[in-house]
Amino acid sequence: MPSLQSLKNRIKSIKSTQKITKAMKVVSTSKLKKAREKSEAAVHYADKMQNLLIAASALIGDEFEETSLLKNNSEEKVQLMIVVTADRGLCGAFNISIIKTVRKAIDNLVAQGKSIKIICIGKKGYELLKKNYGKYIIAHKDGIGSKGVKYSEACDIAERALSLIHDNQVDSCHIYYNKFKSVIAQVPTQQQLIPLLKEELKEKEEMIINEFEFEPDKEKILLDLLPKNLKVQIYKALLESFAGEHASRMTAMDNATRNSGEMIKKLQLVYNRTRQAYITKELIEIISGAEAI
Fold this sequence. Notes:
By secondary structure, this protein is an alpha/beta fold. It has six helices and five strands, in the order αβαβαβαββαα.
């Protein structure tokens, strides 16, 4: 039977933990609201820009494929993977779910004899990948989103990817991140950034072919917008991941708070029973001593 003091200490410890998890839930709830507003606006803008590029590419045709951001390399020997995770834990399966997707993709690419370069965004992703896939990691950045996700941070990542593309060090670029679906659901997502997907062009060509008018001409607009689109798509992924992180942490901390409350109730019940047993034992000893006298 545990002592009363040890039970008191456990209850006190769990109550302290409950206060922390409750505070973390409140903070994440506050940050989630702002993150969702930015994420929704960015998704709408990124989709419109993608449609514009699809329309311009469809109208220009295959003769403009000399740009490395549009050219579809059938061999695709080297793939750049941008992996977006959180800097901190305590957010459920948020980090593990996207890392599982990345590990599966890496294993498939290696099995096909392709080379990989990885840029890790977020401390947790780097820590989870460096042991088995450290030789593929060429850069990692953390601290992004500590004061809110900034467009300049997405631009820095995009510039690194563009330099690799222009130097012919990689043939394609994909980004892996948790797409915000709802407060309780984030979807591990892979998005091809470079080159622009031909399948996507064919599916949307008829729908948007007459949606835009181009001035001064489509070629100049396309050359200007392709690098900007890369930055916008990365910015969108960072915002969605940031919103998903806080949603996941809010849910995890809510569950932890409720679980700690249940543990306190159970321990309080054990404490009361133990205390009653000690009192009964002492009464029996007193009564036995009195009868002996």
